[in-house]
């Protein structure tokens, strides 16, 4: 299974859109500062997550969501998601050295 996800920085309110085949691992990497573009934007919150059947489908969906980013479609996508939770809650505090909220 593959996932497309949206993280929101609690520090600056900006969004990060990504895809992965292992959501837990990827969120752990983000929480630990392993992503250069997010290292100074932590803590993060997972505000949207969607399952996809293939890598190709996930990448296509990621590109579509990135095109939405500045418009009303993106705002509706995030508003309708109702998934925000902390990464610490999802992963457990011992696994996270920074914090990232995530989908539950």
Describe it for me?
This protein is α+β, with helices and mostly antiparallel strands and 104 residues long. The protein has one domain: GIY-YIG endonuclease (3-Layer(aba) Sandwich), CATH 3.40.1440. Helices cover 37% and strands 22% of the residues. The protein has a 3-stranded antiparallel sheet with strand order 2-1-3, sandwiched between helices. It starts with a strand and ends in a 13-residue tail after the last helix.
Provide the descriptors you would attach to this structure in a database record.
single chain; disordered C terminus; GIY-YIG endonuclease
The total number of structural domains is: 1
Q: Main β-sheet: number of strands, strand sense, barrel status?
A: 3 strands, antiparallel
With strands numbered from the N-terminus, the spatial order across the biggest sheet is 2-1-3
Total strands: the figure is 3
Please state the CA-atom Rg, rounded to the nearest Å.
13 Å
Spans of at least 5 consecutive residues whose pLDDT stays below 50 are: 94-104
What CATH calls the topology is: GIY-YIG endonuclease
Assign the CATH class. Answer: Alpha Beta
Could you report the average pLDDT, rounded to the nearest whole number? 82
% residues in beta strands: 15-25%
Question: How many helices does DSSP assign?
Answer: 4
In short:
This protein is an alpha+beta fold. The protein has 4 helices and 3 strands; from the N terminus they run ββαβααα. It has one domain: GIY-YIG endonuclease (3-Layer(aba) Sandwich).
